Amino acid sequence: MPISNLMQVGGNNSMINETNSSDPHSSLENVCNRTELRPVAIYLPPLLETNLSLALLYIVLMSILMVLGTFGNFLIILISTINNTFNKAGKAFMVNLAIADLCVAGVADPMCILGVVKGATFFDDKLEFCHFIASMCLTACFCAFLSLTMLTINRCFYVCHNTFYQKFYSRITVGLLCITCWIIAFLFEFPNFVGWGDHTFDKKNHQCIWDRTASLSYSLFVSVCLIGGPLVVMAICNIRIVLEIWQKKKSIYELDSDGHYSSLKVWNETVRTSKTLFVIFTLFMMCWTPYAVVIAIDIGDKLSMETHLFVTMVAHTHSSLNFTIYFISNPRFRRSVLGLLRCRCIRVVKGPVSQSSESAERKTLGMVVNSISL
Fold first, then answer.
1. Mean local confidence (pLDDT), 77-100
2. Which residue segment(s) compose the domain that 82 sits in?
3. Which end of the chain, N or C, is less surrounded by CB atoms within 10 Å?
């Protein structure tokens, strides 16, 4: 049976009678004895055919998120890679988060649009591809949760326990933690391959995704542990950071002699970074809490298609927001990005640049990297 739109109607096996009419004189009893049973197939058209206005709105919004998320996360990764700026632990976690968000915005989001346009029949002969998209999307989301949690914990130790921070967060340790995030994320998704959960084309989400109705225990595990757990940890860390900043604020002019911070400038940068991280956490909570609640309470699949479509789209929105947060909240980062783009445009128009121009471009890249405070 295809994953899509060939669904059995009424109970477990809805059937119709098909009689053999080769003998026109057969009795009613013989007709009944020759009755054969066949499942009824029902075609479920794509959303674009059944609800044009809703489909167009969804396509427009998802297209904006796709472009914004792909461009923004790719730019973060590109700048960090060019300059090899992994000396600060927070930046490594930020890049890991950007890679996970890029998988969602650049791969999963286009498949969501395709599902709305083509419907489940498009994936009937592409089951492995559908399972891959569903697995990749959930793994990337879990990795984003873990990376953001690691980033918040890193910032908490930097602000509240700076001595421990300097000893623990080496390049090797941070690299291993980033790789571990991906391994753990896949292990959390792997139960969908072995029966504790499943992958499917969800007729209400109109996309290839994990089957939220396959197992109540796994759905609760995703909702409470994999989404709720990181939220609790990040909330605790942000509270600790706010309290520490509030205490240090009283003696802000003595920071130059404080063993934890080298200068007042570093402290001001730490405060600004912590505020940005708190905004990222707040938006993460706003995007993923509705989805966590819906999958936990609707294991029977009773809620409307619009509800599931909306909360899933909002959850995917978070993968496109982090770059925007930096661009809006950090004037230095905004100026540096615009300078980088302007520099690239000039290079394309004028051809190869001189050595002095190349030095200026490197300087611009350095400004961008320095402006990414995490």
1. 76
2. 47-329
3. N
